[in-house]
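#struct-pred
JK: can someone run the complex with iron/sulfur cluster? inputs below
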Amino acid sequence: MNSKKIPGLYIHIPFCLSKCPYCDFYSSTSISAAPDFLNGLSKEMEMYRHQFNPIDTVYIGGGTPSLLSPEQLENILTKVRKNFDLIADAEITIEANPADLNQSFLESMREIGINRINIGAQSFDEKVLGFLGRRHSVKEAISAVEAPRKAGFENIGLDLIYGVPGQGIGVWLNTLKQGIAFSPEHLSCYQLTLEPKTPLGRRWQAGEFSAPGEELQYEFFMKTSEFLEEAGYIHYEVSNFARGMEHASKHNQKYWDHSPFLGLGPSAHSFHGNQRWWNHRSFDQYLASINAGNLPVQETETLTIEQLRLEALYLGLRTKKGISLQDFKKQYHSDLLSGKKKIFKKLEEAGFIAIRDGYLYPTPTGLAIADTLSLI
Ligand code: SF4
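RT: done, C-alpha cells with the ligand placed:
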C-alpha cells in the first residue's frame, strides 16, 4: 500500500538521569543497564536485518540519548549501517538534554554523522523549568542552544512547552523570543498534557493547582502560531514549525503520511502497510524477549482499510499541507469528499478547513482544534 514511501528508523534510548514529573514516556533511571540495553538493541537490529530498506531517516530519541557516550552512539550508528541500507544523505537526529551538551560531545556527534539535533530546552524561564522538574537551568538551556552551531550543526531544533500552570502568555512569548534569537531551523511547541498517572497529573487531580482552560489553551496556540509565522517560521504541523520546508523534520513527517517506520528499543512503535506493532514497555521484558531469541513485540494490530482512511484524515488535518484528494483516492481507494460533503461544507463555512487546488487542509483555526476535527 505504501511501498513507494521510504521507511525511517526510530531508536528509543530508555534512560534518564531523573524522571520529570510530567513525563509519560518510558524511561528508567538505572543507567548502569545501558551496556545490556545496547547489546539487546544490537540483537534487535539483526532480527530486522535487510528489512525496511532503504532507510532515509534515523531518529535517536528517548529517554535521554545524550546520556550515552560518543562511543556508544557511534556503535549504534555503525550497527544501523551494518544492518540497514542507510542512504548517504539520510537525516540523522539525536534528542539532547541541555545539561549534557558540551563542545566535545557535539563535535563527536557531527563526526559520527549526526546532522540534526533536537534540544529539549522546554523553557527559558527559571520558574517554569522548576515547575516542570527539569534538571537544567535557563543558563544551561541558553548555552546548549548556542553550542551546536559552533560544533557545525546546520539543523538545530528546540522543544518548548506551553500551557504550564502559572506560566501566562507573556512569559511564554518571552521564551519564544529567546528561542528564536538563536535562529533554530526548527521548533516544536507542545502543550503540556497532565497525564493522570504522572506525579504532576496526580497533584493536579488532588487540586494542588489548576491548569489553563480551553480558552486560554486556544490563545496560547494561536499566539504561538502568529508569533512564529511573523518571525518567518512555517507552522507545518499542529506542534511543529520550520524555517522553510527543507527544515521540516523528514522523520516525523513519516508518522503523518503512513510511511513505514521501524521502532527499536523498549516501548517503540512500528508501522508497515496495514500493520502496527509496539515493543514491551518494560526494559526487563524487552531484554528477556530478545535474549530468548524473539522479537520484543508486545502487540500487533492490523488496520482495516476504513481505519487507515480515518487515520489518514486525522493525521492529514494536523498538517498545514493537508490531504491530497488524488493521493488519498489512490492510496485508500476512496473519494474523501463523497459521503462527507455536507459536513466538509459546514466546516469550510465555519472557517476550520479549506478545499482548494486538490487539497483538503485545515485553516489556522482548524489546526488549533485538529483533534476535534478528526472526529468528523
Ligand atoms: S528527560 Fe525527557 S524523557 Fe526523560 S523524564 Fe524528562 S521529559 Fe521524560
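RT: quick notes.
The chain has 15 helices and 15 strands.
The chain has a mean pLDDT of 94.
JK: thanks, will look after standup
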